[in-house]
Write a structure and sequence with these properties.
mainly alpha, Serine Threonine Protein Phosphatase 5, Tetratricopeptide repeat, 0% strand
Length: 364
């Protein structure tokens, strides 16, 4: 319907983007609101080097491993050095510290304040930056356990930029752990339509079905994500989760072992394999997973939360609660899964579990 060739220097990339957007909208006779026209014309930086560094930061951020997130932080910091007023780079930096906390790459109490500070700085530069509002929303329920505040921030982020895929994705995760599955499904599908090749979003389509109890569909969606990249660590992890709920323990163990080969120093793959062994009654192999986690903790940070997983699989409630309390003291982000994760059903009637949910201020 429209086509034109542009031959410009990289330094003129921003002008080319604006020209393409303007010509497409005119050629297709799009009726844009004033706000949409401003968004199309918006430049977050005039420095092409800073922009290039920002894009590289996002590339590594989307890989979701400890090593890749470390690289993303460096690229975002370099972008800020090139342009100290680059709000998007601060938002990217906040998102990177967020993931280090979320995936247990270090103590949440160390990384969340850094994420908050970077997001606040982004909003000081641009108070209408959807990316920063989405980050603060995630922080509010994962770390502060401020559930109503999180919802307000998510809605604000989506209002400011309905085309920001991660805003819809993270809001879907929030809605899932609140048990609001139809709403969660709508949000994650919106994210997927906006960014159909994003590996993390495609994986989270599967996890949304998983939290909603639709395990066959969860397996189907995780397999689709792995068609995009067979080596994507997270898709193997969540495919393993879905197999467990279908009582396909051997298939689950295989997926956790693949995840362990892809990311050998990630505690989750070790712990979930141990959990699956425990469920299968293979206590000695579950014990080996606990020993591996203890050895790994000598080289890097290991959250208490994945260790609790193994004890749940072994049916050792007292040790499971001991480690869940340690995770509570750490402010481990994935404690928010307690309310909906079926693996914790054996603990659910225990007063200690009810008290833990109360202290985390879960919405009723």
């Amino acid at each position: 319907m429209w086509g034109k060739r542009f031959q410009e220097k990289f330094s003129d990339a921003f002008a080319v983007q604006e020209g393409i957007a303007r010509e497409i909208s005119q050629s297709l006779r799009l009726k844009l609101t004033g706000e949409e026209e401003k968004r199309l014309a918006r430049r977050y930086t005039e420095n092409p080097e800073a922009y290039d560094l920002y894009l590289k930061g996002r590339y590594y951020w989307n890989k979701r491993t400890g090593e890749s997130i470390g690289k993303s932080i460096q690229f975002f910091q370099n972008a800020i050095e090139k342009d100290p007023g680059y709000a998007l780079a601060y938002a990217g930096l906040a998102d990177s510290f967020h993931l280090l906390a979320f995936y247990g790459e270090g103590p949440p109490k160390e990384f969340w304040p850094k994420a908050r500070a970077a997001a606040v700085r982004a909003l000081e530069i641009d108070e209408n930056l959807a990316q920063a509002h989405a980050l603060l929303a995630d922080l509010k329920y994962l770390f502060d356990w401020d559930w109503p505040g999180a919802e307000r921030e998510f809605r604000r982020a989506i209002e400011l930029n309905p085309n920001y895929p991660t805003g819809h994705q993270w809001y879907a995760n929030y809605l899932s752990v609140c048990g609001r599955f139809p709403e969660a499904l709508r949000e994650i599908q919106s994210a997927q339509k906006l960014d159909p090749l994003n590996l993390v979003i495609n994986t989270d389509v599967g996890t949304t079905y998983y939290w909603g109890g639709q395990y066959e569909r969860a397996i189907e969606e995780q397999r689709k994500a792995l068609e995009l990249d067979p080596d994507f660590f997270l898709a193997h992890v969540y495919l393993g989760f879905a197999y467990l709920r279908k009582t396909l323990s051997e298939d689950a163990i295989r997926e956790f072992e693949i995840a362990g080969r892809l990311a050998p120093d990630e505690p989750d793959a070790i712990a979930l394999r141990g959990y699956a062994f425990g469920v299968e009654g293979r206590g000695s192999e579950a014990g080996k997973a606990l020993a591996q986690l203890a050895e790994l903790s000598k080289r890097r940070y290991v959250s208490a939360f994945p260790i609790a997983w193994v004890y749940v699989g072994l049916g050792n409630k007292d040790r499971a609660f001991e480690w869940l309390e340690k995770a509570y003291g750490e402010r481990a982000c994935r404690l928010v899964y307690l309310n909906v994760e079926k693996a914790f059903d054996p603990l659910r009637s225990d007063p200690r579990f009810v008290d833990l949910l109360r202290r985390m201020k879960f919405p009723s």
